[in-house]
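Sequence decides. Our protein:
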Amino acid sequence: MIPNAAILTKHLETFAGACSATEVILFERTTFLVIASSSPTPSLDTSLELEGTPGVSKLDSKRHERTSELIKAFKHSCSRVREEFRSLEMELHDFTAVLDEMTRNTYVMVVIHDPTIGMFSWFPIPTIPDDCRFLEIAAVKLNIRLARRKFEELQSDSLVS
């Protein structure tokens, strides 16, 4: 259904590498259906292990569907209190996720399983100053902002073809 899904996936994989991300997922803006994603492995089989990735043991085959449902519920909660949903950052012990606008019609979620990125000060890492952790989250957000033009071009190319 997405004419340039393979091209989008290739660019998402490049983007994931630039952000040191485990995975990058591109969602349609209104429905939050998955348009494309970079995959950390050749297959999304639930039995696959992400070797060498701390905090990641198995991939859930329904993770995109579940993530989409959770984001839609959160977006709905925002609208009930008359707040506009724009972006979301989650900084947990096992991973960091940043959800932000990518194009006029899409959102992107960057998932990073790196304990040095985005950790709050109650998980101190002696070799990394607290300020650097938040700068790394800002760097991910900056990468998203810098990638917007390219993904707008890819989106307009698919509309023309």
Observations:
- Residues 60 and 66 are 10 Å apart (CA to CA).
- Residues 42-49 have pLDDT under 50 and may be disordered.
- The longest helix spans residues 130-160.
